[in-house]
Amino acid sequence: MPEMPEVEGLVEFLRGRAVGLQVTKATVSAINALKTYDPPLTSLVGSTVTAVDRHGKFVDVTTDAGIHLVFHLAKAGWLRWYDALPATIVKPGKTPIALRVGFDDGSGFDLTEAGTKKSLAVYAVRAVDDVPGIARLGPDPLSADFDRETFGALLAGRRTQIKGVLRDQSIIAGVGNAYSDEILHAAKMSPYALAATLADDDVDRLFTAMTETLAEAIDEARGKPPAELKDAKRRGMRVHGRRGEQCPVCGDEVRSVFFADNSLEYCPTCQTGGKLLADRRLSRLLK
């Protein structure tokens, strides 16, 4: 799933390519991806892109018509940019393309989604807070006013595992499964630690790990075209998606815990004092 650093990379790319261009095409080929009907998506045609911004994992393309094209790539979505947009007609249900947008210089992009579980979401709205997911977002951890005290206040009293807190978009915007693994590894903290039980030095360490991990990943994504962002993300991971490999810090084997639709990765030596966390699939079999 694209998370904050990759989405920020996409936003910077689109900001450099699309701002100032006029929209000539806005066509949805996956009807279930379009979550709004007023204003119609076609009202974007003829407008000029004035800004591209990020809200958590949402991309916000603003136009001078007062309409925002907002999209969330979900788990398997991505953006494919063309300097020359293909002239072929996109047939609904026949391709992985969910949305096609074209500009007056001949360029444009497709939003694509792989797999059978379709979660990519597209919105045409007059105000970004009209998108329910954006209205529910917590603060951005890399915003200027997000400091250690703000972070500590968000954790205080939460009897929730810290892995879940980091992933909850209503608490902290933009961090997902992959970067929460990376942040917890950098902080040398168990994903099962309860937020409310963290000591002040734990919170200090976690705040530093979060801000530095995300900032480094954004720096790695910066300047790369969409086609290269996924590989840049994979290369930067120390534990996420590296089950069975050696931890780059201590050399222990990276382990996984599997859930219904995802997994977490961690290093026992760095994060849990050598303790192996129970594999939830095996636990169910033993009941």
UniProtKB/TrEMBL annotation:
Domain FPG-type per the UniProt entry, residue ranges: 238-272
PROSITE patterns (alphabetical): FPG_CAT, ZF_FPG_2
Keyword Repeat: no
Protein name: Formamidopyrimidine-DNA glycosylase
Alphabetized PANTHER family for the sequence: FORMAMIDOPYRIMIDINE-DNA GLYCOSYLASE
Cofactor: Zn(2+)
Pfam annotation, one family: H2TH
UniProt superkingdom: Bacteria
EC number(s) reported in the record: 3.2.2.23, 4.2.99.18
One term of GO molecular function: class I DNA-(apurinic or apyrimidinic site) endonuclease activity
Keywords from the UniProt entry: DNA damage, DNA repair, DNA-binding, Glycosidase, Hydrolase, Lyase, Metal-binding, Multifunctional enzyme, Zinc, Zinc-finger
Lineage: Bacteria, Bacillati, Actinomycetota, Actinomycetes, Micrococcales
